[in-house]
Amino acid sequence: MFSSERKFDPFTLVLGVLFAIMSMVILRNPLGSLKVLIYVIAIALVVEGVIKLADTSMIDKTLGMSSGWLIFSAVIDLILGVMIFIKPELGTVYIWIVLALWFIFDSFFELWASRFISKQHKGYFWFDVILGVLGVILGFILLFSPGMAVSVGLFLVAFYFMFFGILLIVRSF
After folding, report:
1. In which region does residue 109 sit, left (phi positive, over 0), alpha (psi from -120 to 50) or beta (all else)?
2. pLDDT, tens digit, for every residue of 92-129?
3. Which GO terms describe its cellular component (predicted)?
4. Closest of 92, 86, 15, 83 to residue 45, by C-alpha
5. C-alpha 49: how far from its chain's center?
6. pLDDT in tens, 69-89
């Protein structure tokens, strides 16, 4: 079933090259890429809202629990997704706020979690603390600088595409 002999996979190579090209397109055309990203987010919010609404009946039947919070969340997702479709500028604000809050909350979590490794690995503990503090600072900078936040968001998407593309190209051989 599994062979130690590696074979060339042209599909993975083509997919990796497409991801790498997509990364370069995002970096060369940030405004157009931002528009596409905004519509992708709007579609994702609408789809997530519909899926959550479909899940409410299953939760009621299966668990016998109230699904009020799930319905509330689904309606918020649907409203936000439709509003972003109608007024795409809201998508830019959404990216800005979500990215900044993600940096802040994730960094605070890292700082909280670093206390568990302080006794075993002092070097990693201090590395984690320094990165956590830098993340909190960057999150607050992004929170008060919408242009920078949107630029960082696009760069992160481009970086992910390039990284994943290179990974697929290497895997193809």
Report:
1. alpha
2. 898 899 999 999 999 999 999 888 887 788 888 889 89
3. plasma membrane
4. 83
5. 17
6. 888 888 999 999 999 999 999
Alpha helix segments (H runs only) across 29-143: 30-63, 68-86, 89-114, 122-143
d(CA 100, CA 140): 7
Angle at 115 between CA 114 and CA 121, to 5 degrees: 70
Q: Which two tokens stand for residue 83?
A: 């509003």
- The label of the residue with tokens 């039947």 reads 61
Q: Which residues of 89-120 are buried (b: 16+ CB within 10 A; e: fewer)?
A: ebbbebbbeebbeebbeebeebbeebeeeeee
Tokens 């960094």 — which residue? 107
Query: Please, how many CA atoms are within 13 Å of residue 14, restricted to the half-sphere of its CB?
Result: 3
Minimal CA–CA distance to 142: which of 83, 94, 100? 100
Q: How far apart are CA 125 and CA 115, in angstroms?
A: 8
Domain ranges of the chain: 10-172
Beta carbons of 95 and 80 less than 8 angstroms apart: no
